[in-house]
Model the fold of this input.
Amino acid sequence: MSFTGRRVLIIGTGLAELAARALDGAVIETAAAETLNGRSLQTDPPDLVLIDAAGASAEAVGAAIATLGRAPTPPPTLLVGEHLPVALVRALMRLPRSDVLEAPFSPEDLCQAAQPLMTPQPAPMHNAPSRCWTVMGAVGGAGATTLAIETACALAERLPGPRRVCLIDLNIADGAAAAYLAAPANMLLSRASQAPERIDAALLDAFVSQAPGGIDLLASARDCHAFDTTSGEAVLRILDVACQVYDAVVVDAPRHRRAWTLDVLSGSDELLVVSELTVPALLAARSLAAEIEAELPDGPPPRIVLNRLAKRVFGPAPSMVEAEKALQRRAIGGITSDWEAAAASANLGGPISQHRPKSRIVKDVGDLVDRLMASPAVRGDVARVA
Done:
């Protein structure tokens, strides 16, 4: 987000230079904790109040926080310092929009902490029912991320309204959706995990980046420790809020089981398991589907999508009929292989539907989405091969 022209009031004088670097373009003002004026907060509230706990006594900082709390609409407030007293932090958390940043910190840390607080008004909630589509690969490299992207774009074409579809990449350690779409990876789930109950539509907007194809994207920057530092509560909360904001949510779920995986699958309306037409992939898809059915008997039925179907009639790959025999169940659909279109779109940044709209992949995904929209999954239902 841009900080240009946004007013930042710093309580204390030691952070002005660092804040000017971190919040490029912001109008920086300073004041002493003892002189914070409740009247001015009502008539001309700043976009952010930055309190330097090291710049005043704990009593003065506490009084400043109390003054902020008495404002009709308390401004977003960020408290920074080292070894912050618990009483101050508890008082700060009573403000509707606030956060804590532990010292020492860099300008980049300050920028990341300020962004969600300075995000404009929350996105409007809607009462229309949202649907969540979760996509998982049976094996690595099966094309789950590509299918998730194309599914999200196909849904965006079919759903009206400005907040149509959000694609959420839950491969938070090394997801590829942002790279495929050449879109920023702004989702900071590790930071949000410190207070998952405070994830709301405003914070969602701070995490979202606009992506080609008419969709919004929630994706994390590469972080090998992300699965260890992100709580299940934060993952489920971000999904819950997204389903309140968007008409449809498409989840690119990690293949390997996490503590929150079953909760994500259980809350989904559609669950697509993506498999290649190789014997190991088909066996893995069969096992994965059976595991999900056993652990979530009343959950959404896993529907298998066969990816990279050969264009030729004859060849070494199994046919659709042979694949379904190996799966011991029906496949919900197949996606024709078009390596050139997929590679070109990934290199150019954007969905295949944007760069190669006539690709068979686009048509097959569109047909699949139409079929699933016309015949939603029935929980507990399993399509077996006779």
Notes: The first strand starts at residue 7 and ends at 11. The chain is about 40% helix and 20% strand.
